[in-house]
# Entry
Amino acid sequence: MSKKNHSDEEKKSAGSRGDDGKKADQDISAKTPGVESTAVPDQKNGLSPEDMAKQRIAELEMELAANKDKLLRAHADFDNFRKRTYKDMTEARTFVKIDTIQPILNVFDHFNLALQASERKPDFKVLDDGMKMILVEFKKAMDELSIDIIQVSEGQIFDPALHEAASKEPSDKHGEGRILRQWRQGYKMGERILRPASVVVSSGPAQPAANASDVKESK
# Structure
């Protein structure tokens, strides 16, 4: 064997022993507690593990914020739906009450008229007592339904929101637009008018009749 070949084999053997030594050193440092590994950690997209962790945290925070916004929107939509439903149910109950009480109002009026007639005839004492009892029961039912009588007094200013003008009459006592008397009671439920009070309204002082002499002078 030539000297050159012998030298090449020695170099290969030395290199192999060197690689094995490095590998053994790495294995020992990895398995031995307290000995830090000199191996370089894998990197992705040129980011260090710390940067990758920060990026992931930022992504999770954005996802959390988006989910929180969706939750708040869903909560607001549900709250609006609940309020609309409550309002619709309240209005529906009010209309049911109105439909229930309207047929009774005329009966209530007739009982009032009968009571007034019986008071003018004392010999109808039994009828008078019975009518009063019925009237009391009607008033209780109206109270339970939160129905109030629209109060009307002589000389009160006519209010088209509460009153209905049945007729007009001249009056020297009350000026134009003042109520002279009530013809039919009105009723309301809270702020809602079930039926306006029907009244007679003053048209102002009566105009004096023209004298014959005044007519001749005008001619």
Remarks:
- Residues 25 and 105 are 106 Å apart (CA to CA).
- Helices lie at 3-31, 49-119, 125-144, 212-218.
